[in-house]
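Sat 14:20. Reprocessing the chain from the morning session after the first attempt stalled halfway. Input below, unchanged.
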Amino acid sequence: MMEEEIRTRLNQCGLKATPQRMRVYAAMCRLGHASADALYHFLGGASSTMSLATVYNVLESLTEAGLLVQRPSFSNKMFFDVNTAPHGHIYRQDSQEITDFTDESLRQAVEARVREMLPEGLALDRVEVQVVCHAVHSPQAEQVES
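Finished this time. Tokens:
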């Protein structure tokens, strides 16, 4: 995403296009998914001119503006997602990679089932499908590598 597109998007959401917001949102557009810590390291970590606290504050403002969605993961870390449309995630435990997938019929089926079993007095906010997996090494792949 180009700098002017980012500036326009921030302004459309009622945010001033500060250098910190521009930099964090550009990095998130490039990464797609990231925890605050991972983003901080991507931006240069301790050698960066931006503190970890600033990264957290900017992520919070971008989330409140609707440009990012905060999502929990099975790795017990909260991560931010630039894709704000309903979708699922495939999480690879071995590499900690997150990949988006869209299956509206699956999401609707899970949502319908959850609504049926939701205790009285609770309202469903959204359904997020997250598939957790790891790489499997097949005997054929091991023979090819030898």
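The longest strand covers residues 88-92.
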